[in-house]
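RETRY 2/3 - previous attempt timed out on the joint model. Re-submitting the same 850-residue input unchanged.
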Amino acid sequence: MRKQVTQNLGFGLLFLCITTALFFLGTIIYFITVRGVRILSWDFLTEVPKEAMTAGGVAPAIMGTFYLTVGSIIIALPLGVACAIYLTEYSPRSFVVNIIRMSINNLAGVPSVVFGLFGLAVFVKLFGFGVSVFSGCCTLGILVLPQIISAAQEALLAVPQSYREASLALGATHWQTIRSTVLPTALPGIMTGAILSIGRVAGETAPILFTAATFYMRGFPKSIFSEVMALPYHIYALMTEGTHPEQQTQIAYGCALILLFLVLSISAAAIILRQRQRKGYE
Amino acid sequence: MKNKMMFAVLAAFLSTGLIAGVYGFSAKNLTVKGSTTVLPIAQSCAEAFMNKHPDINISVQGGGSGVGIASLIDGTCDIADASRLIKDKEMQKAKSKGIDPYENAVAIDGIAVVVHPSNPVDKLTKDQIKDIYTGEISNWKDLGGDNKKIAVVSRDSASGTFEVFGELALDKERVRPDALLQASNQAVAQTVSRTKGAIGYLGLSYLSPRIKAVAVNGVEPTKSNVVDGSYMLARNLFMYTDGAPQGLVKKFIDFVLSEDGQKLAEKAGYIPVN
Amino acid sequence: MDRLKEKIYKWIFTLLAFASLFFLVGITLTLFIEGLPAFQEVGFFDFILGQDWYPTYSPPDYGILPLILGTLWVTIGAVLICVPIGVGSALFINEIAGKRLKSILKPIIEILAGIPSIVYGFFGMVIVAPFIQKLLNLPVGLTAFTGSLMLGIMATPTVCSISEDALSCVPRSFREASLAVGATRWQTLTKVTFPAAASGISTSIILGMSRAVGETMTVLMVTGGAAVIPHTFFQAVRPMTSTIAAEMGEAVMGSTHYHALFGIGLILFFITFIFNIIAELISRRFRLKLGLGR
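RETRY 2/3 succeeded.
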């Protein structure tokens, strides 16, 4: 009897935990959606900022976020996949592999603002790329590298060993096996991982603070060496450097909603895809 | 099948990016970078300027006076916004790189000291303000007011307003560490209007009936007093260029200093230089 | 010919595999090169233990103790919020929720883990801070508590998700054995499943802490930014990350202030580095304990 009461109490407590978590997160999404929707319109998505950033739209910021995201994935994806291929297909279980694994894990834990400092010192200053799309993409690319590696690794490990053996038995070389058997099978999984990291990159602010972001420009960057506006930075700039809080808070709500929608829908798509794939392998 | 779709989606993404990248390629470019205090002026002027000259592209960046001047020296921006004069160290560095920073004063920033409207104190000397902010005086009764603890409100140390106030009113002495630090002029106004014993400081344009501005050294904080130089809590805002402005840079600086430009500066909360 | 090609490919992959290590070393080197001058110019102990952070005054003070303590307070607060809620949620998902509910909740939590930090910062600034100010009748709503709250909520999905992974690694046989000897589900959970997964769960807590320590935008927007040694939770603080983000723009390139900010970055880097190593060691032991290999 007592046991039953304790169990019910305990389960109740756990239920409370998850409802609290979902409640808080739900509140955030609710407020941002309800207040952000008011300002959202076609013009808001396609216009440039007007009248001292109190009217108009945020098109350059949306486009800038798009550039930064795509650019950083283009940089990180080949590198990440290559690293994952080495770790799963070539790696002798050894000291070297341990070191690489360790460095991936640690790189994943480095605070985002530290990536910003690194980008500032190396890409902006040392290499002289300046505050630019390119510097931002490089910084963000390094930031998502660990995530892409582990996603690619998971996808490669899920490829049944028998595929490899069959290919090798037919006389294919190691590389041929990887290229024409392993990679194509793992590709959907790798792409899912890449999509998932898009969500992460799109929302990052601290790394682009000193490396890519600009407060105001009209239109889109003319080359990869010019600076860009970006959604997350735009929210920050409006809230801290704006001089017309009434209108600018509204615009910031709109940006937050767009960003939230983008990030959540991208990661939702990726996570659902991944679940299907995992089931497929089982 | 699935793979092909993935590639198609990716290809579509990339091509939109490329098309958008080529778009607007022929425009002339100008980068303005620096102090967040000058940012609103630079932004609204850039906007109006681009409306007049659609072929020109101006990018306006914050970052702070230090970043602006450093970028001017590095040659990564054309105009550096600054809420302070260039420092000797920066000047030396510029000279060694063959850059000749040229200062253009574009507006004046006035700072008002404000208290709650119910507070009987309506004038303070500079030394009294300094004593309040450094913690020497902590009760209004020492200043001829009610027996009430003073709640000191300040801007956070990253802001230009904080820097100027520290220089002009506090002789660079330190604000007592327990001061409430607010991130914007608006927030200072709000806190002071809600807290009876509060004292704060903010840009002149943020004055409202909900807060009371005090006279400093007997001079009221009005625009005319700032312009004629009798009100002491004011400073110039600058746009630094490499040498006297030329070409496109000159065109833009001229616009900022024109009647239209100065009107925009006033709208952004500052006082015109002319 | 083919053999040569094979060798070349292998070498290319080996080389690229070192990218992470290369970047990690690059980051460390950069921080050392740019940050060490601060330790030299200010003095190691004056830098770490100095109680005043007045970088823009003359003479300046570069004591980062208030910043370290700011980070510490906010992190402790965040951990107090995210650990019970996150681990509790994980236990709920793993132990109580049915298969169907689990297959909905798990992805939802994972998706929520992706909400960008700027959104939390923005939300904290416009909704939570005014609310807390009114509720507790404070002069300002931007306090260490607000920061802890936002960070705690933010880290909850991460903690929950990793804890759940650890729980689902516990072999089914453990639970079945416990239930078979007549233990209730609650007893099984507290006496068998939870202890078996404990080190995996502690990994999640450490990673959650590491995230809270390194988080920038949220704390920058909601903690108020006063560089003082905090005495209560309802006071503005200035964590290390937000100091870097807020002041990098004002620092004169190559000045002591500039180096000091890199110095703070270096310390941050080491704190998270140590957290990660600990997490790694614990999770390795955890896997050995459950006989999972690798």
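Chain C touches chain A through 90 residues (CB under 8 Å). Closing ticket.
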